[in-house]
Amino acid sequence: MIKFLWYCYFGLYVFMKTVCFAPKIMFLRKFKPEKADAYAFKIFKIMCTHVLVKSKTDLKVSGLENIPEGACVFAGNHEAIFDVFAVLPCMKSITGFIAKQSLGKLPAVAWWMRQAHSVFIDRDNPREGIKAINQAVENLKAGYSVIVFPEGTRSLKSEIAEFKRGSLKLALKANVPIVPFTVDGTYRVLEVGNKVRGNKAKIIFHEPIYVENLSREEQKNITEIVHDIVKKAL
Fold first, then answer.
1. Residue 179 is inside which H or E element, if any?
2. Among 3.30.420, 3.40.1130, 3.10.350, 3.30.70, what is the CATH number of 3-232?
3. CB atoms inside a 10 Å sphere around CB 20
4. Which GO terms describe its biological process (predicted)?
């Protein structure tokens, strides 16, 4: 499929799903917030899985047994926008993203992300950025997991840049496990060429890091520790 037509299809698909399910979710949220959360996340995962199927992506996932019960921070490399569709269906419980502010301006997409308790960071406004991180910490304490891409941008290739220092402090503040994950091949799905073709991609979830068991020095260097784990699997 030509990439332009793919994006048109995707936009229409998300819009139609929002029109169909948003009224029920908004109604549930008034009276049964927890039920609304669960229902919205179920639909969100179905939507992401649909995108995987339609793109004919051959996705291999390993290490699902390493995902612990309860809230945690998932931290991995970021090859492409397609990472979102690949990673989210693997989540066992309600999980949001830490995303850049520009994604928050995409009406239907941002609405679904907010239903999963995602937070949007304005990189040009440090004060608002701190507020967003604090909100993510509160979400973790409330039992909602979060996906973080510590590189801060897409690589568009099978390489990994340095993780931004301090990008995983929220796990230390909330005292929740960190689950490193490695993504490879997703950039070939939408980011390369003029057509969306079936491509092979993989996700590996590594063993969780329980921050309470780390020494002070290890906590200080947590971004480097996670970075090395993710990089070794590329």
1. strand 178-184
2. 3.40.1130
3. 10
4. phosphatidic acid biosynthetic process
DSSP for 80-132, written as a single string: -TTHHHHHGGG-SS-EEEEEEGGGGGSHHHHHHHHHTT-EEE-TT-HHHHHHH
The pLDDT score that the predictor gives to residue 94 is 98
Cβ(109)–Cβ(14) below 8 Å = yes
Locate 31 and state its tokens.
């009276």
Lowest mean pLDDT segment, chosen from 20-24, 112-116, 120-124, 226-230: 120-124
What DSSP designation does 69 have? Answer: S
Q: Is 8 left (phi over 0), alpha (psi -120 to 50) or beta?
A: alpha
Burial class (CB in 10 A: 0-12, 13-18, 19+), 177: buried
Rounded CA-CA distance 73/90 in Å is 14
Provide the residue ranges of all domains of the chain, joining segments of one domain with +.
Answer: 3-232
Q: Which two tokens stand for residue 140?
A: 């973790």
Two tokens, residue 100: 């850049």
- pTM summary value: 0.94
Task: Please report the pLDDT score of residue 1 as a whole number.
Answer: 66
The string of DSSP codes covering 11-42 is HHHHHHHHHHHHHHHHHHHHH-HHHHHHHHHH
